[in-house]
Specification:
By secondary structure, this protein is of the alpha/beta class. It is built from 13 helices and 15 strands. The strands form three sheets. Strands 3, 4, 5, 6, 7, 14 and 15 form a seven-stranded mixed beta sheet that branches.
Amino acid sequence: MKALIFHGPGKRSWDDVPDPAIQDPGDAIVRIDAVTICGTDLHILKGDVPAVESGRVLGHEAVGTVHEVGPSVTTVRPGDRVLISCISACGRCRFCRESQYGQCLGGGGWILGHRIDGVQAEYARVPFADTSTHVLPEQVGNEAALMLADILPTSYEVGVLNGEVTPGDVVVVVGAGPIGLAAILTARLFSPSRVIAVDPAPRRREMAALYGAHLTLDPASDVVGRITELTDGLGADVAIEAVGLPDTFELCTRLIRPGGRVANVGVHGRPATLHLEDLWIRNIKITTGLVDTYSTPTLLRMVAAKQLDVDGFVTHRFGLQEMQEAYDVFSRPEESGALKVALFAS
């Protein structure tokens, strides 16, 4: 089969590799019907995730059809159309029993495209298939389902829920890429009084407004001054960092009021300065996290019921064999206007 292979920082190829096979009784082999590229994949290619070894098949967001299952699998069967979660869960360890699947001690967590071969391929081996896949209802198409593999649960859990968004809050989302847009969309579920998006790209600021931001700001402007003015000198209640750069994290810590919350979602490859000399006295709460995907069933029901509109996230579509071109487009959003790309098997 063909797959996207990581060959070290800055190097990738679309190559022939052996077909995956059942290795453990709980495995499923899934034929990939639709797949997307994540910003985390770009971080891997930049060398920001050194645990990813050369030769790894990348990717952790896909929808597919179950081709084969191991003898222990009971909840999915060949022919089922499934969402492959970006997080795998053994279902038995302490963290899985606490719904912290991202911290799984039994061989799960974020492993696809990280510690084992991922889903940017024609077929993929999915460990712990009973607890790491979701059978899709007919009313949720493959393209919409792709948004539930990672970006929606990540923004919702690590951004909105960790940030403790409540009715009436002023919420600032720094970064209006896919994660930031999903954070705007899901923050609106909690009736904040104002959602403000900060992004340098005019097109992404336009998309932020479409997804529910009341105001969009260019970071080249006086963002701190504007938000201070809008909040009677206090600052925002919640700042969600959705980029993964030192400057954007530090901006978030300057935007919030005393007692405010900073929810970091971005993947950081470089150190960021934590200005405790300013923050210690202001009762600031800072959270970080890897998505656990415990919210995926809830979000899936909301998408199926048309309570969450994920149309518009995918801006570019390709055939699976056009993986290299899709990476080129996705990695140049300033030029291409790409948010999410989707690749479909023929």
